[in-house]
Amino acid sequence: EPKRKAAFGSVGRRIPYRILHVINQDGESLGNMHRAEALKLMDQHNLKLVLLRENVEPPVYRLMTGQQIHEEQLKRAEKKKASPKPGMVQKELSFSSAIAKNDLETKTKQIAQWIEKKYHVKVTVRQAK
Fold first, then answer.
1. Suppose 122 and one of 8, 16, 80, 92 were both cysteines; which one would form an S-S bond, judging by CB atoms 3.0 to 4.6 Å apart?
2. How many Å apart are CA 59 and CA 49, to the nearest integer?
């Protein structure tokens, strides 16, 4: 079973690290602390701990409200939508400005088909001599 990346959200009480770097809900650093201290802080302020960066020493966690977590999930989803997909196909078409009318119609039909298939289309028009 391959290890898959967990979705952004509260980690609850399952924290595999002993020492964490904690950031409060306002974005201010609270420094490094033991996980028991972080859990106590989480309970006192009725917040949730969220893993921000795992590949640093010590890993960075942030105390967040449910609303902040929801907003962050929406932001990340928006960013993911905006970024180009790795399998995105880009088609490129190049023709002269002296192209015949029939040839131009044929090429515009081809472009329309590519756009329907959600391809990115790049058109280059060269100036005729």
1. 92
2. 12
